Please model this.
Amino acid sequence: MIPEPDAVRVRLDLAYDGGPFSGWAVQPGLLTAQGALEEAFALILRRPVRVVVAGRTDAGVHARGQVVHLDLAPGEWEGLARRSTDAPEDVLVRRLRGALSRVLGAETGALEVRSAVVPPPGFDARFSALWRRYSYRIADRPEHWDPVLRGITLWHRAALDVGRMNGAAAQLLGLQDFLAFCKPREGSTTVRELQEFSFERTHDGVVLAHVRADAFCHNMVRALVGSALRVGEGLERTEWLHERMLARVRDAKTRLAPAHPLVLEEVGYPETAEEMAARAEQTRALRDEIAG
Model:
């Protein structure tokens, strides 16, 4: 979405608990994160609003560092503060918090707008992004099954060998075709640059996965983690993930790890306005080339 010449583009940084939502994207009759946010904007601006997101999340997936943008008319932006002496950015966050409480009702607090800013020219929440980073928590020992954290942790019933999982994960790094770990969508590519895929056992004994890529295709993170779990259990060799990637095969062994431990932690962007605009133009051109 390229803004109108006089539009004010606004960047919002969000966090949400994915539990109450049927994913990010609007779905008729269902509560979604995008639907709740756009309904809150409609209450404030008294018109339909469409936001653009850095990366869609599936049902049950959480976010600490989601990013969206939207375009406002100059009069709408300047009128946000009304008679307040506060900056429009601060007023927008405050008014969105109030509107979201009306939209979400009993689920108030499940979606929080952390900040609102006017970004550098050329910013696009989706196309300017350099990478997205996810985490995934796994408790593979009963003594670490914490009921307080069960909503964001996989209780895995088999012990995991983190060294084997890292050995398998390292073979997938780089620019690759991840068809074996994606649910393909028509007109889209499954080629991605996997920049980080690693596991560590943290101080509390939980296994934490780190996954970062330029972008992710549908179900990619959950399929990668689900496959790595088979290696960690000793059910497959460390070379198995790499062999599946090269074979570009999806079969009964393509298992998705559950959604609830998955968290979108952060989205990375270029530092300068020039780099941001160039990145957006490059990504759009690639999308058009693939679709065309």
